[in-house]
Each structure stands twice: as C-alpha cells, then as structure tokens.
TrEMBL record:
Entry keyword set: Membrane, Transmembrane, Transmembrane helix
Family annotation (InterPro entries): DUF998
Transmembrane segments: 12-36, 56-75, 87-105, 125-149, 156-177, 183-203
Pfam families cross-referenced by the UniProt entry: DUF998
Protein name listed in UniProt: DUF998 domain-containing protein
Amino acid sequence: MLDTVSTDRVSTLSALANAGILAAPLFTVAAVVQAATRDGYDITRHPVSMLALGDLGWVQTTSFVVVGLLSVAAAAGTGAAKATRALHAAIGVGLLIAAVFRMDASDGFPLGTPEGRLTTMSGHMIVHNAGASVSFFSMIALCFVLAAGFRRTGQVGWAVSGRFAGVLFALGLAWAMTGGTGGALTLFLGVAIAWNWIAAATLRRRRQA
C-alpha cells in the first residue's frame, strides 16, 4: 500500500513538473501569433502585456493565467533546491498578478488610442508592472541558479549558456526600462530566450535525475 501511494505521489509530482516546462514555449507562441495578427500592434513599441487590451485582450489574459499556473505547478512538482522552487513560484505569481491588473492603453494601441507614450500610470498599471517585475527578476535569477548547478556538475556548456541567457535578459530589460528604441522587442526577446532556456534546463535536469 505504501509503495502504491509513493508511486502515485511521484507520478503526480512528475506531471506537475512536466506541465511547468510547457509554460515558456506556450507563452512565446501565443505572443508571436498575436503580435503578427493584432491590428495596430507593433512589438517594437508595445509590450506583450498590451495585447491584453482591446476586444481580443482575453487571449493574452488567458495566456498569462495558464502559464502562471503552469509555473506554480513546476514549483510544486520539481524536486530541486528550495531556491529553485521559490523562483518558479515567483514567476508564476507575478504572471497571475499581471493577468488581473492590466496596462493602460497608449501609443496607438488598441486602435483608436492617441499616439505617444504615457506620462502618468493608473494604479492597476503600477500593480501590473510590479507583478511583471517579480517574474522578470525571478527568471533572471533562476538562469544563474540553474547555471551554477550545471557548473558544479561539470556541464560547462549549460552553465555558460544559462549565464548568457540571464545577462541577455537583464540587458534587454534595462534597455526597455530606460525607454530605449525598440525596448518592447528587447524585453520580449529577453523573456523568450531566458524562459525557454529555463524550460530546456529543467527538462535536462529531470532526465538526468
């Protein structure tokens, strides 16, 4: 009986961890498809979060909710160190906050919105940015935490690529936060590179375990 319970628990945790690995590619595909099809949206000017605005905004909101829950599932299912679990959970919680509190319309999106960047932010946009920041900084930190684990086991390629992904995301985020040209694009690329590397690294660790 105990063996059965133990086996069932391992299977459940494994399923949760595997679900978490899907978060990054699902988010990336959903964002790219919407960026290519939403009228008036320009990924070099508009952050992905702005896709949650307008008549089809529910698509991006659903994406935030799904990938947020998948990231929390990864935290619950992984048998990794406490810091790794905490960072997975923080990524998920930040995304769920971003799903509930939306950005303000600006810079011509959705269609009909006046051109130009915002000069003030609403309360819900401030909370959105706070949630997104939690996710962003957690992703950057997780890249370095996982890279350190690979370095300890002599997997140099994975260690170097993890640090590279973290640095790229940090640079892309800094460029976007300072209002650099094309900052929305550098932010998205940073998220896509770092988060999909985390997914690949997590899958590798699971296969080795």
